[in-house]
Amino acid sequence: MLTVEGLRSKYGRIEVLHGIDLEVRSGEIVTVVGANGAGKTTLLKCLSGTQPVTGGEITFRGEMLTSVAAFKRLKRGLAQSPEGRQIFTNLSVEENLRLGAFLFSDDRVERDMEDAYQTFPILREKRNLAAGGLSGGQQQMLAIARALMGRPSCLLLDEPSMGLAPLLVAQIFEVVSGLKERGVTVLLVEQNAFGALKIADRGYVMETGRITMTADADELIADPRIREAYLGI
Amino acid sequence: MDGLMQFIFSGLTVGAVYALVALGFTIIYNASDVVNFSQGEFVMLGGMITVFTFEAGLPLPLAAVVAIAVTAGVGVALNKLAIEPARGAPVVSLIIITIGASILIRGASQLIFDKQLHRFPAFSGDEPLQVLGATILPQSLWVIGGALLVFVALWLFFTKTLTGKAVLATANNRLAAQLVGINTNYVMTLSFALSAAIGALAGVLVTPITLVGYDVGVGLALKGFAAAMLGGMGNPKGALVGGLLLGLCEALTAGFLSSQYKEAVAFVIILAVLFVMPQGLFGRKSTERV
Q1: What is the domain partition of chain A in residue ranges?
Q2: Which of B172, B178, B286 faces A70 most closely, judged by CB atoms?
Q3: Phi and psi for B22 in degrees, rounded to 5?
Q4: Which of A117, A175, B238, B287 is most deeply packed, by most CB within 10 A?
Q5: Which pLDDT tens digits describe chain B residue by residue (290 residues)?
Q6: Which CATH number fits domain A2-83+152-231: 2.60.40.10, 3.40.50.300, 3.90.1170.40, 1.10.340.30?
């Protein structure tokens, strides 16, 4: 579904992605794990079109995506819940969700919103409040819910567990693994390697701008090198 | 309290003009956090273009429509030629660009048109109406009505339409706006066109009362800015109330103190607002977790 070949990207003159190859097949949950600064977020930004690509190609559902403007990518089915949540802090929770479905104005918008409230009941409680006043965990829920309002076939998730209490992390991961049943393919970028690998089908390990290892998620969890470097076991 | 009613009428008229200028500020501000200091030039262009197309033989309504359309075009050009290429620059730089643009537009108008003051006939004649022992010009009612109409339209736009929400979303978080599929460049172009059109409409409505010349924009932009600050930047309700209050303060100061202090009122109000309540009367306090 999503294929990345030889992807390169720079900040100024410093190259941070040195040729990334990666594939996400339809219906999978794929995770990219790695330490802080490995380039995981940059990779996702390239995929969503908010970071310039200096080499390589991105193909999504058989179409070249590399030079498609960021705002057109959701229409093609690719949504991103970005790092740092990036919700519309001045708008209400409900307005955030409605804008998630900016491309649509049919009856399904209402149903999807009802769906989001069922998945995250706390959002229904706070639907008329400014989103900026939500707690970190609630903002993360809103960011994911908003991305889903855009009816993506593939969702890019950047560090959904960042800065959250363990209980919330578990809840977020549960929701992410539930996306599979809805037919949403997921590319999950995480520092919390253990949590991510537990719900993923396959995983990639990223180090300083390169993919250093890829395997099925349970193999990676079992791999002694991974256990030592990322799982702290 | 002799003449109080008269002062209130003239205050409301002037206030409605300020409100229209302030309403013009709100859209661009809501889309980009930029205070567009060439908003006053849009008002001037609205008046000037109407004058010259009317004198060239066009019927007045058509001349007004042409003026509004051309001014909207100037707004779009300002965005495409000056604001968009500077994307990523700090808001302050963008504001300075709009000040530069206002100087440019003023200079160009002086060359293209002339340095005289102009007017065209009032829409419903110049016969004053007697209301509550005071008089009011029919054109004043046009101005006040225009301000109310634009206010209602803008309020509906920002609260009821998805496009209006997209404008707010673009200002709040441009990255996230793109991720939900909003074409943020289009939103910016649209907001400059709308702001310019509202400015031009103000120019069309007030020219029969206040006359128009190439340099009326500066004063109007500053007064409109004061009104918008007083009401709360970015809020249509604030722009309307701020404008009317400012107009009333000016008129009452001129009437009961001295007309020499009239001009100072706006600036005293700006200072007071900035010191005491920087978010204005209806401004939203920004809520943000860090």
Answers
A1: 2-83+152-231
A2: B178
A3: -65, -40
A4: B238
A5: 558 889 999 999 999 999 999 998 888 888 888 889 999 999 999 999 999 999 999 999 999 999 999 999 999 999 999 998 987 788 899 999 999 999 999 999 999 999 889 989 888 888 888 888 888 999 999 999 999 999 999 999 999 999 999 999 998 898 999 999 999 999 999 999 999 999 999 999 999 988 898 989 998 998 999 899 898 888 889 999 999 999 999 999 988 888 888 888 888 888 888 888 888 888 765 544 44
A6: 3.40.50.300
Q: What are B21's two structure tokens?
A: 């200028």
Q: Which of B166, B175, B288 faces A99 most closely, judged by CB atoms?
A: B166
B290 touches chain A (CB under 8 A): no
| CATH number of B182's domain | 1.10.3470
Number of domains making up chain B? 1
Q: Does residue B11 fall inside a structural domain?
A: no
B143-146, long-range: CB < 8 A, 24+ apart: B143/B13, B143/B16, B143/B17, B143/B20, B143/B205, B143/B206, B143/B209, B144/B12, B144/B13, B144/B16, B146/B16, B146/B20, B146/B201, B146/B202, B146/B205
Give the ipTM. 0.89
DSSP state string for B156-190: HHHHH-HHHHHHHHHHH-HHHHHHTT--HHHHHHH
In a domain, B8, yes or no: no
Contacts of A142 (CB under 8 A, 6+ apart): A85, A87, A93, A96, A97, A120, A123, A131, A134
Query: Domain for residue B142, yes or no?
Result: yes
- The pTM of the full predicted model, rounded to 2 decimals, is 0.85
Collapsed DSSP state (helix, strand, coil) of residue A156? strand
Strands, E, within A12-167: which ranges?
A: 14-24, 29-34, 55-60, 63-64, 78-81, 154-158
Q: Which residues, 6 or more positions from A137, have their beta carbon under 8 angstroms from its beta carbon?
A: A164, A165, A168, A171, A172
Residues of A in contact with B288 (CB under 8 A): 89, 132
Q: Which residues contact B213 (CB under 8 A, 6 or more apart)?
A: B44, B115, B116, B117, B118
For B163, nearest residue in chain A (alpha carbons): A102
| A102 contacts B284? CB cut-off 8 A | no
User: What is the domain range of residue B83?
Assistant: 18-276
Give the CB-side neighbour count of residue A33, counting CA atoms within 13 A: 27
Give the pairing type, strands A154-158 and A29-34: unpaired
Tell me the residues of chain B between 259 and 288 that have a Cβ less than 8 Å away from chain A: 284, 286-288
Q: Do A98 and B162 touch (CB under 8 A)?
A: yes
